[in-house]
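This section describes the prediction task in plain terms. A model, or a person checking by hand, is given the sequence of a single protein chain and must write out its three-dimensional structure as a string of tokens. No templates, partner chains or ligands are provided. The sample shown here is typical of the held-out split.
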Amino acid sequence: MAGIPQFEDETAERLLMLNGRIACRQQALNTRIKTLADAEFRVFSQWGEDGIIEWLLAHIPVPNTRFIEFGVENFREANCRFLMMNRNWRGLVMDGSADNMQALKAQRFYWMYNLAAQQAFITAENINELIIEYGFSGPLGILSIDIDGNDYWVWEKITAVDPAIVICEYNPILGDTTPIVVPYNPAFNRFNAHYCGLFFGASITALRLLAARRGYEFVGSNANGINAFFVRKDLASSVLPLLEAVRAFPSQHRDSRDMEGKLSFTGGLNRVKLIHDQLVVNVATNQTLRIGEIPNLYSPQWLAEM
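The expected answer:
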């Protein structure tokens, strides 16, 4: 387990939980907010997803306190960990790495909470079988998808659960005007697809289109332009009136790699230039085209904010 970051200090973990619960109480004072990003605070999530989830659950009558999250690595940094520890939710997490699952099971929280952790490389073909096999089919509170590649294609095929809330990673480099997705490859790996690691997943427009087809309303994204949040249509009326605007944000992070695999810190429009010749699928028209062939990939608002 050498090299795998863990919370070995129980005091540090308790302090994080205390700060998170204080943030929850402060957040409870804010019923109406400008955008979903205004609800952000971070305990164990990578960005501000912990706060967004808490705000949503404060206003949505979620009928089931179970979650599924996949692509969690060792669950040290994840969307649903604070949810599990703060609200005592039951969960299923999956990751393709056996080492990550071994590291997770060595953590103190693994025995303290009702958490199933399974090693699995998720594809569109096996996702329903896995959910059923591990006993999590049926009603679900939250489904969180973050596999850096086939997120769209996997969500499209999920029928084994009926989540109230879906969190799905989008790729902001693919813009916000066109519903484009990387072509499906069950063995997809973002760094095998392109050395820079920026060619993966789906545009926010593609996910919004899929969500509408699946019966979900888009309610917003985190401020750093990573995760989009969707609420089932029969529940969305609980939160949509509380949001002044529903929107997704572009990203500011610079996690591109060079040909040697080292961080190159490419930012702004220079990021899309690295992958302009890659093929994507327009899921509204089923047309396959190169990213560089798409005019006006970004809205004026996104361009101004990038």
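For orientation: Strands lie at 66-70, 90-95, 115-119, 138-145, 161-169, 180-181, 216-221, 227-232, 279-282, 287-290.
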